[in-house]
Structure formats: C-alpha cells, structure tokens
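Comment on the following before class.
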Amino acid sequence: MPASVDRARLADLLARETAASAARNPRSQAAYQRAEHLFGRVPMTWMNKSAGGFPLYLDGARGARVSDLDGHEYVDFCLGDTGAMAGHSPEVVAEAIEQRYRVRGGATAMLPTEDAEWVGAELTRRFGLPRWSFSLTATDANRWAIRLARAVTGRSKILVNSYSYHGSVDESLIVVGPDGEGESRPGNVGAPCDVTLTSRVAEFNDLDGLARQLAHGDVAAVLMEPALTNIGIVLPEPGYLDGVRELTRRHGTLLINDETHTFSAGPGGATAAWGLTPDILTIGKAIGGGIPAGGYGLSAELSERLLGRTDLDLIDMGGVGGTLAGNALSVAAMRATLEHVLTDAAFAGMCALSERFEAGVRDGVAKHGLPWSVSRLGARTEYRFADPAPRNGTESAASADGELEDFLHLFMANRSILMTPFHNMALMCPATTEADVDTHTAVFAEALAELVG
C-alpha cells in the first residue's frame, strides 16, 4: 500500500462511496435481495465480486454504454472483461444473429455451415495457425487442447505460469509456493486430485525456472498467456517469449498460447504482434461479439499427427468436443464480428484510445507522487499499486489491495464509469470515444485528489 495514502482516510472514503452507491441504486439492491433461488443470489458466483455489497443489475447495453435498473448510464471500460471487446450488441452482429436464428432458422442442427470455413480462414490470416476447431468458451478450448497435447506427446503433465488465467481448467489452478515448487492455488474449489499430479508451474519471465521444470521430461505442453492478464497485466521481458519457444522445442514440449485476453494486443493478438509461433492457440470471449464462442488452432504438423492416429476417438466420446460447439449461431456471430467489427482498422483506433487512457492515468499518478505503475497491452490498460510494475504473477498477486480497489471502483461507478471488477483494467472497443477516455481521466484525478488529501 502506498505510504502516501492514509488507511483511516481510505476507510472513511470507502464507507462514504458505499453509502452513496446504496442510495443511488435501490432497484439493483432490491433485485439482489429478492434473488433467493440463485446460488449466492447471482447467476454465477463471480458476480459477487462487486464493491458496495451488491452488483448493479443490467437493463441494457449498446456500444460502449451500459444502463442499469435504476436508470443510470455508464461509460463501460469493463466490456464483459473482454467478452464485449467488440462493444455491446454491434448492429452487424445482431443482424447476423437474427438472419441465422429468425430468418433462415436453426442454431443447433449438428450440421456445419459455410461460415465456419470463413472464420477458420480469417483466424489463420490473423494468428498463423492453419487448422481450427470451435468451442463455446476458451475454457473448453484449453481443455481440449490439453487432451490433444497429452495424446500426441504421451506425456501427462501441463505447465502453466503462476497466477496465469485459463478459465476453470483444473490443470491451471497451480501457483509457485514458498519453496519454489507448485502448490494448489488458494481457494481452489473441489480439485479432483492434488494439482501437482497433473501440472507443473513456473513464474512468468523466469526462463531458469521453466528450464528446471521441463527437465523432468513429463510436460506435454506449456499453456501460457503471452502476457499475464487476470492478475493484472504483466508484460514479457525482452527475450523471454523467444526463450520459452526455444526451451519447449528443446524438451519436446508443445506450446499453447492462450490469447483470450491478450487478443487486445492487436487483430492477431500477441502472437501476430510479437511474431510468436505456438503449436496450438486458444481463444474465446471477444470473437463472438458477446455470443458464446471460442476455438483452438493447430499447426499443420500437429494436425496431421493427430488425424493420422487411428487409436484416437476424435469423433464420438474421446473427450474432445461438445454438442453445441461450432453451432451455426455462434459461428455466424464470429464471422460478423471478425469481418465487420474487430477489424484491423478498428484495432488501430482502439489501441490509440488505450494510449490516451494510459497517458491520463500516468499523469494523475505522477501528479500525486504515488508509487503505482501503469501497463498497457494494445487496447487494454491497467494501473497497479506497485512501482516498478510486477514482473511475475506472484509479485502481481502480492501487490493487490482490495480496500483500495473497492474505493476506486465505487468512486468510478458512482460517477458513471465501469471498470472491470476483478482488477483495475480498462478495455477499449470500437464504439469508445476520446471523450469517454477523457471522462475517466478527470474522474480518476478527482479520486486521487480525495485519496491523498
């Protein structure tokens, strides 16, 4: 916690903003109190990660704006924590969904559509992987990629980076413990077995640690984000990603890039922006324009090896695939999103706005001499309560300050700005404007002025 922030003052400010939120949002609070038939009173328990004691309830959303039950409109920098990076309900995606579902009919017929080949070709253009298969979430894409990696290598373990994010994949819920070896991530719910039986772990930006773990010879694949995101943005140091690729090849280990969040780096994610060459790439959330969609891409060599295996059931119950995966509706949404919304030109504008956002935050932090840092990944920017910026997941987790985060999130929300509830992340979409960014800069400066006195 920055020495220049008084904890008693922070507690008073947080209490004030909490009371203001309750007074401002009676309908959302009442809806939450009535939700007795939902586990944790919400559709998914993570929706309880809301400063103020109850979540705001959605009424509508369009572009970069969200409105709640109490009639407030917000500039939305959360954007569904990447799921709405195309903006809320882009018109062209809505039209494609209506055409598929209402006009032509059929969302799930267990038959392919021509849209799927278009989407596969476009993902190949963007990311470089020539063969694609679809899922409904990036979590499923990761699960299936892991199974394919185990099948083709004959090895049992998956290596991830400490505090990386791969959805609810069992193998990823492992962190580096005090002794430098793996242990279950705190709070891991109902693990089917000791996670060290299925996984190994190394810190991000630590090639020596990665080399030690790969030397065991039992790692089928390294599953990694090219930059950490969900624990706060942690950027790769010069030479790190090249070193990861060299080490995986040396040890006969596959490399899986999870671009679900790092897609913000550009139209081809960090893989294209930084010239990376993974064996498998997984992605989800943003590519469907808000409709559940995900997928994984395979290198030509890996695809041929898998399809040539007569002992693998890739068609029925072999553990890879789902009835609704690749359905006509989600594929139509992916095509519309990639063809018309999250285009190369749109990313250029989104990244420029993110630079503007970053500059505004840096100016505010510098004005008050706060020991904070700001990191940006294309269209995604985040401020952290540490300077210098954390260089790995463990350092990033240690820099968290829940009370300070709650104050900033409530302060913003009470002034009609939404940030991602899990961290201090702001994402740009094609509908975001310079005025939206400047609004955040002004409100952020106001929050800091109150915080430091």
The radius of gyration is 22 Å.
